[in-house]
Every structure is written in C-alpha cells, then in structure tokens.
C-alpha cells in the first residue's frame, strides 16, 4: 500500500517545512469525518506564522535598542561621564519611575513602577540606569540586598506587585468539550438526521413506540460511540497535561535569605539574584551584577547567531536567551508576561507540535481506504436502490409510493452512510497519538521524559546510539582515587587528611596545590539551610574540590587571593584557567585540564621541596606512563599547573603554555550497575553502541571493555585523528568504530552526520553540554541528560533521560519499537474488519438486494474496531522479544507482506463463513420458524462480532504463533475484550428492538463463538506460510542482518 500513498504523506521527522505540512493536509482533502478530532494534535500553522511575525518584530526591536545602547555608551564615554562620586538622582527621574506606583508597593519598600522597570531592560536604557546609580541604586529601589538576595517572606508581595514568572497558556479542555468535538463527525451528523427522519416517518406509519425503534437505535448507538470516543480522548489529554507539567520542571540557582538554593524558574520574582552558568537559559529579564566572560546567545529572540558579551557597560539580559560561555550573577527586573519572551511563549504555546511521520503516513492510508470505502458505500446504495426500483416496477407499483417505501430508502441511505463510518478509518492516525501518549506516560515512570512525540516512534528504528561516558555509562559519583605529586603516586583515602601528604611534600607545595584547587574551580562551597556547607558544581569539579577540603580551608585560600579573570572549562580546549592576584601583589595563572594536553603545555615541575625545576624528557616520559597507568585503571585524569606572571592586571590574557606542573589527579567514576546488560540488549537488537567521550583514550577503552562496548577487533580512535579522515575513510571506519576519545563537539557532530547521511543509519545521540546541541539537532533522536545536562542541551533534545542512565535509553528504544509494532497490530486488525464489513454488505446487496448488517450494528462494529481496538492493541506493553529483532529500516513499508498475508487470510475465511450463512444459512442451521430471517441476520451479526473478538487476540502477534504470551498481565486488553463480549450479549438478547436483533438459543451462541474462534487455528496456519522478507541482507558494509524466520516464533 505504501506505493499508493502520495509523496505528500512521506515526511521526515526533522527539518520539515510548514509548506510540507500544508501539502499533506491538502492531500487528505474533504475525506475527513471529523477535522476537529483528526487534527487536534496537529500543529497550528496559522499561529506558527503569527509567532514568526512576532519574532521578526521583536528581533528588529532588540536590534534598534542595541544600536541605541551603543550610541548612548559612546556619548557617555565621550562626555567623560565617569566620576568618583555619582551624581544625585534628578527629581524628575525619581518622579517618573514612581509615577502610578501602588500604595501597596510603596509600603513594601519598592520605589519603581513595574512598567518603568520593564522598559528599562527591554529598551536597553543605559542612561536611566546610570542616573539610578547603576545596579546598586536599582537594588535599593527594589528593596533587595545584592549579597543576601530576596527574603522568602517577601515573595508573595513581589508576585502581587511585579507579577509571577509565568506566561498565559492555552486553557485545558474539559470533558464536555471532547464530547462536543466528537459530535462534529460529519457521518454521525448525517446519521442523526436520518434517525430523526426515520422516527418521524415511523411514528406516522407504525405509531408509538414501534415506529421509533430504528431511529432511536441509531441515536443511542451514536451517543455510545461519542461517549466512548470522548472518554478515550479526554484521558489522552490528561496524559499530555501531566507530561507538560514534567517538561516545565526547570530549576535555576538563586541567592535567597543569604543562602544559595535551587528554585523553579516559575517561582522567580523581581529582585531575585540569579546565578548563571554555561548552558543555562536566562529565566527572566535582568541586569548584570558581576561575572566572568559572560557570553550570551540571543538567537532565540533575534535570529543572530553571533553571541554578545555582557559586562558592566552592557548589562542587559533578556529572558529566553542562553548562556554560551562564562558565568555571572543577574538581578531579576521583569518576569512573565511583562517580558518579550513571555509574550512570544504565549503565542508559541498555541502552535502545537508537528505531527509524527507515522501519523502523517497513516493519514495517507486512511485517505486511500476512505476513498475505496466511499466508492463501496455509493455502489451499495445504488445497487440497493436500483434493485428496489426494478422489483417495484416488475410488480407494477412504480407509480405507487408510500411512507414505507420512503422509510426503506432511508434505511438504505443510512446503511450506506454507516459503511462510510466503518470504511473511513478515522482512528488510524489517532491510534498513533494514543499509543505514543501511553508510551510517554510509561516512560516517565522509567525516568525518560519525551519532549517530542516523533522521537518515541523514531527511537524504535534506531540503529546506532552514540553515548557519553560520564554519568551515562558511569555513576557520575566521582572521587579522587589517586594523585601524583612531586614525583610520587599515592592512593587517596576517602577519609584522608593533609597529614597523609605532609610526610613527603613541603608546606609550599601544599600551598600551591590548594591555591590551584580552590581558585581554579567551577564548583562552589556554599552555605545551605541549617548552617551546613555544600559543594555545587559538576561531579568532576566537586570531586577535586572535595579532595581539597580534606587538605585545607577553602575560605582562607579565597580570602588571600583575588580572582582577576576566569576562562571556564571549554570542551574544545579541554581545560579551565584562572588569573589570580596573590597577597604579595604578584599575579599567578592556574590551569587544569586533560592530562596529556596539559603536559605538553608544561615546561617545569614543582618538586617535593617546593622548588620549580625544568622538566626533562625522561620525566615527561615517566609522567606520561603515570597518566596511562591511571587511565588503564579506568580513572579520569586531570593535570593541575600554574605559572607566575609577575605584576599583572585583569586585562592580561591567561597564558597558553610554559606552565609548571603541580599534580596529576586520578578520579574514579564506577560503571553503573546494569549497563553491561543494557549494552548487550542493544547489540542483540541490532543497535550499535559507540562511546563518544572527552576522556583519555586509555580510560575510555577500559570503561568500554567493562561495559561490553569494545571487543577484540573493534576500533578506538581519538577525535583529532577521526576529524582528519576523508568522508570515504570515515564511512569505511565507522562500522567498526566503538570508542572515540578526546572528542570535541565538532567530532561528535561529524560522526553523527556521516553515520546518517553516508551510511543511512538512524542515530540517537546523548548530550549534556551547550556545545552538544549541533550534534543533537543533526541526529535523528537527541537525548539530553536530566541531571548533568544544561538547559540548552535539554531544550535541543527530543528525550530527557531523567536519571542519566544508559539503561533508560535502552528502555526508550524498546518502547519506540513497541509503539511501531502496536500500530501495525491495530492496522492489521482494522483493515481486516474494513474489508469484511465492506464486502459482506456490498455482495449481499448485489445478490439478494438487502444488507445483513444494519446501521446500528455497523456502528457497534465501528466502535469495536476503532476506539476500543486502538485502546486494546495500541497500548500493549513491550516484551523482551522486541529487542531480539533488527530495527525497522527508514524505507521499509509500514504495512508489511506478513501483515497482508494475515489480513487477506482472515478476511477470506470470515467472508466465506458469512456469505455462506447469508445465502444458505437457513438450510444449514435448519431455521424454519416464522422469524427465520431475523434469527439468521442476528446470527450473522453475532458471528461477525466474535470473528473480530478472536481476530483482535490474533492481532497481538503479527509473526509469532503464541498469541497468549503476556495476555493475562494486560488488564486493559482483557477488560476491553470482556466489555465487548458482555455488551454484545446485551445487544443481542435485550436490545433487539433498537438493534434489529432477536435472542438466540445457546446452540447458536456456541456456534457463533466456535466460528469466531476458528480464526485462531487459521492464524496459526497462515503464520506458517513463508513470506519473502523485503529486508536486505545487510544494512551496510560491516553490519550483518540478524537471523529471522521460524526462530522468531
């Protein structure tokens, strides 16, 4: 069928244009029964266009404000505006900023109006800020201390006066809205009209209550369909609502009540002191207080890719921008809907997510089947009507028309419309949403937050996972395990203290070591509640700082040295540097980073007596052996070094070479429990696992072997070497590549791009830093780390791994495969029902002039195969067998040959049984009673329903014979099957007047069940018929296809 689907329905899940989205919706045409329901979770392209226009205006506004700021700075500098004592604030400025301020705000100690405060940052008004005495004057007017931050008791008042940091969101739909939307189904509306007319004609001809039965039956069936559909859709929306709540759990470091703490960005208030680090998203508008080399990426607001430096003369920070480099503190001035970002987010929140590739493809399938169904419905109506007219003409009654004739034609029309209801598989694309919602909810319980629907289904096709080492394969609980210092290696006792080092190093060496640890660090020792101290920072930084605290006093070292300049850790340079002023007035640079890289930048070493001596070639070789020895023990190695510069200034650049080596530290980070088993699961599933890390190659290889990633014959390479290869060389090497060490984000991006474009792989890639964003964008699935990941990485990701565990990534792949195969099961089931329902009515109409299945009965069948079928089959949990088969290729047909075999086999059996019963059923069953026709039609209806019940069970497995595996643990499936059977009994035995049925005796009930259950052994026979597999023998050179065939049963 994929060959018949128009190209408009074949969309990539990445980089799709709004034009492509418009084309497939246009291709659907008018053949949509309920546009509100079908496109409920589709992107609102009009709102998206509105957001783009809004962003364009905002970009222009920021550009003009930036030019005005530049001009103002030139004016101020030209006028020699710097003074020892700032000018007193002019009275008119004071009146202006307080004009319109509420009494409540004045009593609370605030001296600036929210609107004036907002425009100060939004318009980059440096002149007004200068007149207000800069950041200190502004803090005074906001009644906040720049050291202690906001008092928690003031938060409600600040939210009341200056607003909360939230944007207006699309209101959540209540249950009755879903009922109303379900009623917008065009075919149901037509059937309601038919039912009303039927009741009117019936009352006139047959009187009350007999004349209302047909019409009431249709109306009650429609109400049942509407209510079940609305309940299913409402529960889906609740699941998405829960997931949205999880997505909004974003925290940022602030100083409140004099202590540093993490708060939700939605709880920020005006006056908060926010600590910004690399990868953070600026959570509100604010003013820069202090920091080092703060580089801000404003592309989310301006579209400009060039970041800007933020410092005292350019202090304005806008919400929604991202910290690309450096660190700093900011004073929050504007929050929520008063910021430009808040207004933009209000529009974006109404845009919705793009449809997934599977949803779009199934819309194409639904369109084709719908057209076929429409033709059959029209043909059925025409055949029935023509036969009726011919028979009427043969009786000579062509000129005689009564209400009974009109009622009969109306029933024909209702049957034709109901065939359309059954034939147009509205539930196909919606089943994808249902399955994805279910999978996303379950994945949340397994510590994976799916941000984009398409990622869940795409992950099921992943052929390669490029994973980080630290925190993903390892525990991320780091401790300094070994240290080389003054020519000696020593094991570090976790409960150790400086006495352990005093025996062989001088006080001077210890002093330099502590200076290097405490000043050159990205971590902080902060006060938390109850007067306790805590270390905040990355696990690597925290491990080194924790070791330093065993040896000396942090506060004492920080007091005697003044930090002049900081170059934060950079994944390209793989080092962090700092320039400090010593108590004697001299300047010293400290640097730490990747050991083998730093060793090349060192020309001297400090010995045990504290003397600086030249590094000989023998010493360099010996130290390299030490580094490799640490690395072979799976330790992460870092080198600490310093360089005295003399009398320096903050403007001095930090040296790049000629350092003095202090120490080599080996940091232990154990492999996570269960990782080896998870890697084996991936390999069994045909998913290649590649470790991409910035660590030393020996450390990486040791960890990779422990995890089961690197085996004999596999390749490990360093990033710079990989980068230097040609594209063809890369394509030859990648299939054998298992470890890439000392890699930069650029190397990771090249690896992902070559794997996707050159080898046709479906690549999942993990990332935790700002620089990982390009690789995650390039990959088919971007996976961000929930604990170690920055907000920029999470924003770029499709899935957030909340526990940073590789095993969780494997679970995402398993659920992705489950979504894909569950939809295949549902499609197989629904197409079988479609074919049988269409053909039985059409053939019967052609041959006998009547349709055995009435409108009410077809509506019930539609409910079984659509909403209930989707609930039963699309929510099947994954089984371990899913990870013992190869991934689905990009170009593989969704409806496979195996599925067509099952569909046609079951359809032929069901049609044969039903047609035989329809034409010679009375003779076979020995029906001679007065209502034999009604009994036969009821029996046909009952048998048809039981055929679908057992076919639903058959559909649980497309290839395997054992369809009962896991059945009794799936309460949703069992509940739906039980509800279907119970309601079928009620319809047949008690609702005969409404459903055109009569009660059946127990023999006919048993026979119906027997004929339905006969589909199960037929399914076994069908699964034994070999089907040519259209998968190629290998995915590409180096990857052999996994075994397929009988063993899968």
TrEMBL record:
A Pfam family of this chain: E1-E2_ATPase
Enzyme class at the top of the EC tree: translocase
Subcellular location: Membrane
Matches recorded under PROSITE patterns: ATPASE_E1_E2
Assigned GO CC terms: plasma membrane
Regions crossing the membrane: 175-203, 215-234, 368-390, 410-439, 932-950, 971-996, 1002-1022
EC number from the UniProt entry: 7.2.2.10
Tree of life domain: Eukaryota
Domain annotation Cation-transporting P-type ATPase N-terminal: ranges: 131-203
GO molecular function terms listed in the Swiss-Prot or TrEMBL record: ATP binding; ATP hydrolysis activity; calmodulin binding; metal ion binding; P-type calcium transporter activity
Catalytic activity line of the entry: Ca(2+)(in) + ATP + H2O = Ca(2+)(out) + ADP + phosphate + H(+)
Keywords: ATP-binding, Calcium, Calcium transport, Calmodulin-binding, Ion transport, Magnesium, Membrane, Metal-binding, Nucleotide-binding, Translocase, Transmembrane, Transmembrane helix, Transport
SMART domains, A to Z: Cation_ATPase_N
Topology term for the membrane: Multi-pass membrane protein
Family: Belongs to the cation transport ATPase (P-type) (TC 3.A.3) family. Type IIB subfamily.
NCBIfam families: ATPase-IIB_Ca, ATPase_P-type
Function noted in UniProt: Catalyzes the hydrolysis of ATP coupled with the transport of calcium.
Protein name per UniProt: Calcium-transporting ATPase
Phylogenetic placement of the source organism: Eukaryota, Viridiplantae, Streptophyta, Embryophyta, Tracheophyta
């Amino acid at each position: 069928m994929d060959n018949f689907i128009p190209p408009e329905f074949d969309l990539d899940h990445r980089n799709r244009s709004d034009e492509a989205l418009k084309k497939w919706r246009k291709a659907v045409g008018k053949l949509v029964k309920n546009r509100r329901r079908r496109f409920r979770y589709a992107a609102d392209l009009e709102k998206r266009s509105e957001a783009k226009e809004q962003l364009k205006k905002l970009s222009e506004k920021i550009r003009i404000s930036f030019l005005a700021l530049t001009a103002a700075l030139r004016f101020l500098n030209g006028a020699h505006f710097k003074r020892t004592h700032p000018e007193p604030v002019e009275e008119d400025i004071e009146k202006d900023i307080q004009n319109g301020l509420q009494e409540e705000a004045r009593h609370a100690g605030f001296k600036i109006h929210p609107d004036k405060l907002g425009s100060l940052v939004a318009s980059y008004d440096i002149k007004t800020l200068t007149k207000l005495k800069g950041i200190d004057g502004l803090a005074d007017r906001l009644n906040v201390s720049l050291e202690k931050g906001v008092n928690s008791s003031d938060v409600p008042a600040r939210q009341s006066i200056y607003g909360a940091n939230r944007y207006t969101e699309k209101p959540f739909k209540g249950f009755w809205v879903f009922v109303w939307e379900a009623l917008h189904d065009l075919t149901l509306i037509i059937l309601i009209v038919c039912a009303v007319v039927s009741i009117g004609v019936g009352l006139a001809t047959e009187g009350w209550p007999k004349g209302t039965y047909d019409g009431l039956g249709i109306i009650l069936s429609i109400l049942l369909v509407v209510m079940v559909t609305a309940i299913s859709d409402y529960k889906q929306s609740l699941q998405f609502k829960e997931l949205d709540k999880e997505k909004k759990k974003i925290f940022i470091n602030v100083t409140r009540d004099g202590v540093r703490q993490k708060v939700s960005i939605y709880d920020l208030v005006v006056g908060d002191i926010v600590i910004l680090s690399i990868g953070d998203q600026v959570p509100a508008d604010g003013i820069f207080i202090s920091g080092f080399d703060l580089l801000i990426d404003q592309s989310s607001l301006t579209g400009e890719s060039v970041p800007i430096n933020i410092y005292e003369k350019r202090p304005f920070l806008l919400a929604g921008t991202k910290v690309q480099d450096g660190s700093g503190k900011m004073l929050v001035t504007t929050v929520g809907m008063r910021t430009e970002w808040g207004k933009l987010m209000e529009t974006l929140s109404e845009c919705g997510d793009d449809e997934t590739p599977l949803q779009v493809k199934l819309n194409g399938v639904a369109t084709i089947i719908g057209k076929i169904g429409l033709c059959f419905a029209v043909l059925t109506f025409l055949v029935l009507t023509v036969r009726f007219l011919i028979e009427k003409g043969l009786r000579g009654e062509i000129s005689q028309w009564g209400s009974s004739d009109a009622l009969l034609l109306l029933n024909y029309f209702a049957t034709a419309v109901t065939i359309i209801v059954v034939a147009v598989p509205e539930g196909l694309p919606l089943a994808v949403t249902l399955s994805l919602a279910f999978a996303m909810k379950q994945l949340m319980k397994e510590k994976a937050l799916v941000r984009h629907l398409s990622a869940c289904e795409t992950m099921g096709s992943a052929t390669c996972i490029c994973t980080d080492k630290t925190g993903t394969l390892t525990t991320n609980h780091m401790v300094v395990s070994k240290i080389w210092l003054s020519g000696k290696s020593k094991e570090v006792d976790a409960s150790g203290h400086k006495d352990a080092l005093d025996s062989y190093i001088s006080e001077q060496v210890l002093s330099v070591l502590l200076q290097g640890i405490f000043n050159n660090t990205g971590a902080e020792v902060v006060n938390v509640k109850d007067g306790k101290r805590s270390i905040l920072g990355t696990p690597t930084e925290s491990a080194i700082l924790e070791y330093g605290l065993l040896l000396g006093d942090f506060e004492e070292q920080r007091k005697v040295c003044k930090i002049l300049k900081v170059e934060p850790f950079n994944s390209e340079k793989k080092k962090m540097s700092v320039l400090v002023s010593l108590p004697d007035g001299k300047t010293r640079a400290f640097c730490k980073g990747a050991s083998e890289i730093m060793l090349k930048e060192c020309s001297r070493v400090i010995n045990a007596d504290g003397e600086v001596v030249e590094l000989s070639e023998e010493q360099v070789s010996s130290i390299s052996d030490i580094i490799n020895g640490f690395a072979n023990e799976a330790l992460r190695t870092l080198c600490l070094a310093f360089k005295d510069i003399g009398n320096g200034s903050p403007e001095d650049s930090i040296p790049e070479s000629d350092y003095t080596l202090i120490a080599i530290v080996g940091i232990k980070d154990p492999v996570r429990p269960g990782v080896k088993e998870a890697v084996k699961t991936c390999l069994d599933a045909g998913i290649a696992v590649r470790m991409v890390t910035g660590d030393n190659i020996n450390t990486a290889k040791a960890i990779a072997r422990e995890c089961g990633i690197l085996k004999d014959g596999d390749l490990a390479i360093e990033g710079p070497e990989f980068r230097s290869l040609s594209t063809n060389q890369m394509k030859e090497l990648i299939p054998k590549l298992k470890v890439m060490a000392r890699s930069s984000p650029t190397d990771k991006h090249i690896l992902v791009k070559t794997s996707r474009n050159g080898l046709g792989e479906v690549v999942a890639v993990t990332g935790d830093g700002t620089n990982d964003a390009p690789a995650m964008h390039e990959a088919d699935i971007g996976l961000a780390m929930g604990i170690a990941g920055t907000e920029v990485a999470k924003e770029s990701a499709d899935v957030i791994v909340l526990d940073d565990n590789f095993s969780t990534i494997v679970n995402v792949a398993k659920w992705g495969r489950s979504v894909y195969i569950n939809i295949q099961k549902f499609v197989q089931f629904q197409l079988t029902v479609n074919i049988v329902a269409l053909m039985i009515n059409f053939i019967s109409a052609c041959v006998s002039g009547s349709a055995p299945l009435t409108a009410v009965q077809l509506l019930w069948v539609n409910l079984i195969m659509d909403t209930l079928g989707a609930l039963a089959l699309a929510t099947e949990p994954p089984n371990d067998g899913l990870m013992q088969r190869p991934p689905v290729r990009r170009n593989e047909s969704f409806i496979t040959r195996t599925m067509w075999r099952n569909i046609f086999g079951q359809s032929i059996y069901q049609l044969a049984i039903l047609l035989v019963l329809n034409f010679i059923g009375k003779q076979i069953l020995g029906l001679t009673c007065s209502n034999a026709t009604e009994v036969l039609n009821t029996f046909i209806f009952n048998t048809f329903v039981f055929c679908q019940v057992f076919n639903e069970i058959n559909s649980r497995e497309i290839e395997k014979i054992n369809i009962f595996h896991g059945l009794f643990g799936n309460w949703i499936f069992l509940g739906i099957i039980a509800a279907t059977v119970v309601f079928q009994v009620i319809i047949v035995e008690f609702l005969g007047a409404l459903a055109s049925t009569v009660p059946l005796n127990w023999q006919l009930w048993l026979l119906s069940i027997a004929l339905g259950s006969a589909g199960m052994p037929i399914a076994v026979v069908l699964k034994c018929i070999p089907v040519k597999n259209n998968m190629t023998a290998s995915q590409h050179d180096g990857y052999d296809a996994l075994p397929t065939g009988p063993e899968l049963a």
